[in-house]
Amino acid sequence: MKKIAIALLLSITLISCDSSDDNNQNPNPYLVIPPVSLSLNLNLPEYTDLKFPGNSVIVTNQGIKGIIIYCINTDLYTASELSDPNHNPSSCSKMDVIGIIATCPCDDGNKNDIVTGQFTPPNNEKYPMLQYRAERNGDVVNIYN
User: What domain range includes position 112?
Assistant: First the structure.
C-alpha cells in the first residue's frame, strides 16, 4: 500500500510540473509578445548603473518600444516592456519613465509601476506592463522570454 501511495504521489507531481510557461497565452489583446534575448554586461559603462539598487536602464533596440531594466537589489532585477499595455502600439505609446513610474504620453495618461508592472493607481480593468524574465549571472544580467 505504501509503494502504491508513493508511486501515485510521484506520478501526480511529475504530471503537474511544467518546466516552461511558454504555452501560457498572453491575456493582453493589445500587445504581441516579441522574442527577447538580451545580455547586459554590468562592466560596460552604459550598464554600470544596474550594479546599484534603485537604478534603471532603458534598452531601445529590444521589445516593442524598448525595455526598462530596474535593479531592485544586487541579485533581483525586473524587465518591463515600455509600450503602454492598455492600447495598441502607436506613435505615442512608448511610456516615459520618471523614478519608478512609467507614464503613457498619449491622451489617456496611463501610469504603471516599473517594479511591479501594475497599473497605478490599482485598477482591475487595466493591463499590467508586459514583463520579461531577468536574471543576474555574475556580472551579466540576462533578459529573455
Answer: 42-144
Whole-model pTM: value is: 0.80
8 assigned to some structural domain: no
Residue type, 100: I
Nearest CA to 66 out of 87, 36, 42 is that of 36
Q: How far does Cα 20 stand from its chain's mean position? A: 16
**Listed residue (85, 65, 80, 60) closest to 131, CA to CA:** 80
Query: Is 30 among the domain residues?
Result: no
Q: Is residue 72 assigned to a domain?
A: yes
Could you read off the pLDDT of 11-65 as tens digits, one per residue? 454 444 444 455 455 689 999 999 999 999 999 999 999 999 999 999 999 999 9
Site of grid cell 497605478: 120
Q: What is the CATH number of the domain that holds 58?
A: 2.102.10.10
Q: Is residue 74 part of a domain?
A: yes
In angstroms and rounded to an integer, the radius of gyration of the C-alpha atoms of the chain is 19
Q: What contacts 26, CB < 8 A, 6 or more positions away?
A: 32, 33, 130
118-129 confidence digits (pLDDT tens) = 998 888 889 999
- H or E segment to which residue 108 belongs: none
